[in-house]
Amino acid sequence: MNKSPLLVLILTAVTATCLAVDSSPSPSASPVNKPKPTPTPGPLAPDTLPGNGLAQHDFFYAGEAHTEDMYIVRKGQIVWSCHVPNGKPELSDAVLLSNSNVLFAHMSGLTEITPDGKVVWNHDAPAGTQIHTAQPIGHDRVIFIQNGLNPVIIVMNKVTGKTELTLPLQVGNPKNVHPQFRHARLTSAGTYLVGHMDMGEVREYDMTGKIVWSWKVPNKRGPWGVERLANGNTLVSNGGHIVYEVNPKGDIVWQFTQTDAPAYKFWLLQNVYRLPNGDTLMSNWFNQWSGTPDPKDLPLQALEVSPDKKVVWALRSWTPPAALGPATTIQLLDDPSIVPEDVHFGDIK
């Protein structure tokens, strides 16, 4: 494990000092090919937003930003936050585990920390590669994608440090590492749903590497976020302003676009989730590498819409005491019975 500088972590009302991963950037950790934010003209959102603000849900929150910032919000209040002021960029994926640890991908590697900020596991991306997504399998393993000249799916044992499975992946341009992949998620069937961002395609792999399902995004942009739904359909964000629900035949059975909510201007829709009540939750990411939010017209960070496309919750929390920053990951904590590690990849559990 790398030697680590100090960071400040706030746990409820108590300030503590703890350890974090080495904050010096790796050769592959400089943001490149950042898409420019492209909101449509006009105010970014109504002055009064629907829903109950921070109190709408209990949630874990993290996002791509200049610093690594993560939060837990319960009953409308931040009860935990972790900040790495000079941390590695692009916190593209993060998961609050059932033991209260946090596993996160930060482009230059993977890290797991305890609630008090102690690093209990770290994996650095090899030179020339990037890691933007990670998911726990049980308590000992993690599955992730390594962007690079030879991109691969990797299952690694955190206890032994050994790589237990490696599967090669096709990309549009092996030499352009950064835009290859962002989000991937295991399905209840034990397959791996992967957004081939630079190919404009979603592919589903079994543990042998066989493609068992695929879908081409109509406008060839993205896909950024992917999720297999309980009904067998797949939810996809295109990394722009569209969210699709696609059935196994490849038919679009539902979609949400900027025209469905003209009063709410999108920047880049990243991760998307289907909630138990049928609503769809999406993170609306603001690109700090391309600009600074206008304090008089702050962008939304999340949007929840009903099946009939009514906006039921819009989150905009950029200022103290709850300055959450850009949104990528929003893991709802409303149902404490959900265990993020309760997944499998084939017979790997």
Structure characterization notes:
- There is one protein chain.
- This protein has strands at residues 6-11, 14-19, 59-62, 68-74, 77-84, 93-96, 102-105, 109-113, 119-124, 130-137, 141-147, 152-157, 163-168, 181-186, 192-196, 201-205, 211-216, 226-228, 234-237, 242-246, 252-257, 268-274, 280-285, 302-305, 311-315, 329-332.
- The protein is mainly β and 349 residues long.
- The chain has one domain (6-20, 38-332): TolB, C-terminal domain (Neuraminidase, 6 Propeller), CATH 2.120.10.
- A six-stranded antiparallel β-sheet has the order 2-1-5-4-3-26, with no helix packed on it.
- The chain is globular and about 50 Å long.
Distance between the termini: 25 Å
Major β-sheet strand ordering: 2-1-5-4-3-26
Largest sheet: 6 strands, antiparallel
Q: In CATH terms, what is the architecture?
A: 6 Propeller
What would you report as the Rg, rounded to the nearest angstrom?
Answer: 19 Å
Number of discrete helical segments:
0
Integer count of domains:
1
Helix/strand-derived category reads: mainly beta
Overall residue-averaged pLDDT value: 88
Summarize the structure.
This protein is mainly β.
Topology at a glance:
Blueprint: E1 6-11, E2 14-19, E3 59-62, E4 68-74, E5 77-84, E6 93-96, E7 102-105, E8 109-113, E9 119-124, E10 130-137, E11 141-147, E12 152-157, E13 163-168, E14 181-186, E15 192-196, E16 201-205, E17 211-216, E18 226-228, E19 234-237, E20 242-246, E21 252-257, E22 268-274, E23 280-285, E24 302-305, E25 311-315, E26 329-332
Antiparallel strand pairs: 1-2, 1-5, 3-4, 3-26, 4-5, 6-7, 7-8, 8-9, 10-11, 11-12, 12-13, 14-15, 15-16, 16-17, 18-19, 19-20, 20-21, 22-23, 23-24, 24-25
